[in-house]
TrEMBL record:
Pfam families named in the record: AHSA1
Species of provenance: Microbacterium helvum
Family per similarity comment: Belongs to the AHA1 family.
InterPro entries named in the record: ASHA1/2-like_C, START-like_dom_sf
Name of the featured protein: SRPBCC domain-containing protein
Gene3D superfamilies, alphabetized: 3.30.530.20
Domain Activator of Hsp90 ATPase homologue 1/2-like C-terminal: residue ranges: 18-150
Amino acid sequence: MSNPNEYGSIEQSIFIAASPEVVYDVVSRPEHLNRWWTDEAVYQPVPGGSGYLAWGDRATTRPTEVTLTVVEAVPGERFSFRWIYPRGETPTPENSMLVTFSLVPDSGGTRLTVTEEGMREQGWEAAKLEAYYLEHVDGWMRHLADLARYAPAVVERVDG
């Protein structure tokens, strides 16, 4: 088994053929998340906004709900939130993961980097930590690809 210290954070980047402003809306507004990532998203996309995300068949092998609290919302630049599973508790730095979407203009589009951190701080046994990490690495890869397909369609609807 690998060293569990290797599983402390996930970082993945992808190019999206849409402006940082459009990508920001797509990663921060619940009505967009429901199109590329979640089955249900209910929250206010402002610092301190809280609510939940829910997945059924789209993302997981089992229904999943998480509580989230928005940490940072800087239009066109960064959107972050803390989430905790299962749904119910209030996410804090001690009991939750921090997910951050960072956006940088790149070649007429956006370089989006997502990070998820806080896994080691949960005090999980090595096998649980590794399983969570691997499941989320796979999930982010799949959903970021869906996001890269969805965001340009938002641009077309706005421009068209």
